[in-house]
Amino acid sequence: MPKINYVDDEGVKRTVDADIRSTIMEAAVQNMIPGIDADCGGACACATCHVYVDKNWTDKLEPQDDMESSMLDFAEEVQENSRLSCQIIITEDLDGITVQTPKSQ
Fold it and tell me: Which residue from 54, 77, 90, 91 has the highest number of Cβ atoms inside 10 Å of its Cβ?
């Protein structure tokens, strides 16, 4: 099981085991990670699962599609490494990935 590292806006790190083919958002919700609300349940219809992907991991992700890019327009404090965690599917290659939740979320 890949491990996913979640860091909140105060620097507190939480590491969870995640199922392959689930999403970073689903793993967060299942493990009650604060800062990932997932109001739309992963339908890419809100931006309440916005995260910053550690720059060492951004090249290992599939690129954003147009829908995700449009939804990020509604998120606060968007950065170059912003993603919606509902759109990041967990694979073995993402074992150890680190994402941070924005302060405003």
Answer: 90
